[in-house]
Amino acid sequence: MDLINVKDLCFQEKVKNFIKKSDTVFNLGPVNFNLKAGETLAIVGENGSGKSLLAKLLIGLEQPSSGHILLSGHDLSKSSLSQKCHDIRMIFQNSNESLNPGLTLGAILEEPLRLNTSLTSQERNLKIEETLKQVGLMNDHKFFYRHMLSDGQRQRVALARALILNPKIIVADEPFAALDPSVRSQTVNLLMRLQRELGLGFIFISHNLGIVRHISDKVIVMKQGQVVESGKTDVIFNWPNDQYTKKLVDAHQALVNSQDN
Fold first, then answer.
1. Coiled-coil ranges per the record (predicted)?
2. Angle at 66 between CA 65 and CA 68, to 5 degrees
3. Burial of 17 (0-12, 13-18, 19+ CB in 10 A)
4. How do the domains of the chain map onto residue ranges?
5. Of 3.40.50.11210, 3.40.50.2300, 3.30.565.10, 3.40.50.300, which CATH number belongs to 2-260?
């Protein structure tokens, strides 16, 4: 059974052009895909292709112009943001900016539990400790502040905040962009382990085609708001149909070859 089924999702966004002093319209979609428990869908494309805008539509930060987002049979495109947040959670690109520097990690993780559950204070504390352990942090980290953490630890806290409401799907927007290669590798392995243990669906937005090829089951390729190609990861990388997809894959392969030499 599908965790999520996106049907003909479209969005129109007015973009201000300060040079021409007029508005242009950015059209996203139609986007169609489905995702099962334990699967990873990667969304790739150049800057401005609509990847992050699609992520905002999926988690409810933007409302679609038309189309449907079906999660376990419920139409999320007609739900409020608070209803969506239980089942679809997001990891943002810059974990440093998304963590309040004035709050301890415990307070940051407790907030979604206070707002969205009826757990007692003791139950919330146990849930926080359990979630910190899931992402490879210690109980004492709940007393830490943002500035006391490494980049890798901050990203683990962002992951813990996404996990704490037991979502079915996590949307990750360039979650590894600010990490050095060794920390990036550890974080990728952590995500894949959690996916196996929890049966999560991942929607992964990235420029890094090496990671995309490693972790994703399916790929959507976007250009200027349109889906130019989609399919299984191996097929997209080995037999791309669209010239734009071929260009992205060839550039990735050229980079791999240069690193090997």
1. none
2. 130
3. exposed
4. 2-260
5. 3.40.50.300
Q: What is the mean pLDDT of each run of 10 residues along the chain (261 residues)?
A: 93 76 84 96 94 91 91 72 69 77 96 94 97 96 94 92 94 84 89 94 93 95 96 97 95 81 61
Say if CB 197 and CB 174 are below 8 A apart: no
Three-class DSSP labels, 135-155? CCCCHHHHHCCHHHCCHHHHH
Q: Provide the sign of the torsion angle of the four alpha carbons 189, 191, 195, 197, taken in this order.
A: positive
Beta strand 74-75 with 66-71 is: antiparallel
Q: Which amino acid is at 179?
A: L
Structure tokens at 235: 């097929």
- CA-to-CA distance for 251 and 261, rounded, in angstroms? 16
Which stretch of DSSP H or E encloses residue 17? strand 2-17
Find the helix or strand (DSSP H, E) in which 254 lies: helix 243-260
Q: What is the pTM of this model?
A: 0.91
Q: Cβ distance 38 to 199 under 8 Å?
A: yes
Q: What is the DSSP letter of 139?
A: G
The encoded tokens of residue 55 equal 């992520």
108, 179, 178: which is closest to 145 by C-alpha?
A: 108
170, 200 contact by CB (below 8 A): yes
- d(CA 184, CA 117) in angstroms, rounded, equals 32
Give the span between the Cα atoms of 193 and 38, in whole angstroms: 10
* Amino acid code (one letter) for 221: V
Q: Tokens 């359990």 correspond to what residue?
A: 130
